[in-house]
Specification:
This protein is an alpha/beta fold. The chain is built from ten helices and eleven strands.
Length: about 280
């Protein structure tokens, strides 16, 4: 599978987004673990998670725990798997979301994430979402401290605008390695952030790269036409298009069934022509 880089770490060009196996409509645990195993079998070496990927208030870190179980039961070497988790976005268990960018909270949360993932240090930790009640520099400063202390090996941010990307790079002393923003054919407002990441050499990880829950089934027009020409799914074409936009792009499609992530993984080796990329960008 084609490889890309986060910091100094080589990972698969397509990652696995763990959110669908832990939120509403999630599969049973056996299917969830089978889906993660299918991702690993397909050559995926980047797994995205967060402590907020759960439903009920008493199951914080549900997705992190599932991933740890899947890696432990895989039966083959998983030392090359990069697990990226996030903190600062929470679910109280009533279906809503809220944020907490307090530095002390983030430092506690990351240690809980490490415990659930059963690691000494988290491979990539990303500040999940800005908290309007906390100075952004203070939140990112906590991530810097965790990096300095060796609690995390690499640092990133999520749901950030260009100003916050530049500020984070400054606070982290040039050690910002990733930005995880929403981006898909139907949500392209993060193009400025993608372009900035390409300029700075920072990995850009599109979340909901297929358009979110149900979005994958709505890919049509040029995506369907080019998919038919290649004999592949529109979802593969969508991910291949995103990969073609910049060498720093690493989409992280979610999946709750093995077949879905197996199909998505094939996009890493799908080559589109310049005319096809242009047509998809204009669609």
């Amino acid at each position: 599978m084609q490889q890309r880089t986060i910091g100094t770490v080589s990972v698969s060009a397509i990652g696995f987004g763990g959110m669908p196996i832990s939120i509403e409509g999630r599969p049973d645990e056996a299917q969830a673990i089978a889906t993660i195993h299918a991702a690993l079998d397909a050559g995926i070496t980047l797994i995205d998670t967060a402590d907020a990927y759960h439903i009920h208030a008493d199951e914080v870190g549900h997705n992190e725990t599932l991933i740890a179980k899947a890696l432990a039961s895989y039966g083959s070497d998983t030392s090359d798997i990069l697990v990226a988790t996030k903190g600062g976005h929470l679910r109280p268990g009533d279906g809503s979301w809220y944020v907490n960018g307090n530095p002390d909270y983030l430092k506690r949360a990351v240690k809980e994430s490490a415990r659930r993932l059963n690691v000494d240090a988290i491979g990539l930790y990303q500040f999940h979402r800005p908290d309007p009640e906390v100075d952004y520099a203070d939140s990112v400063g906590a991530i810097r401290d965790l990096l300095d202390e060796g609690v995390i090996r690499m640092a990133g941010i999520s749901n950030a605008n260009p100003e916050r990307i530049r500020l984070s790079q400054e606070i982290l002393g040039g050690r910002l390695v990733s930005v995880q923003n929403q981006f898909s054919p139907v949500f392209r407002s993060s193009e400025p952030e993608l372009e900035l990441c390409a300029e700075l050499g920072i990995a850009f990880l599109p979340w909901s790269p297929l358009g979110g829950i149900g979005g994958a089934k709505k890919l049509s027009g040029a995506f369907s036409e080019i998919a038919d020409a290649h004999g592949v799914s529109p979802q593969q074409i969508c991910l291949a298009w995103e990969l073609a936009l910049a060498p720093v792009v690493i989409p992280i499609p979610g999946a709750s069934r093995p077949a879905s992530i197996i199909d998505s993984a094939k996009a890493a080796d799908l080559v589109l022509t310049a005319d096809e990329v242009a047509a998809l960008s204009a669609a």
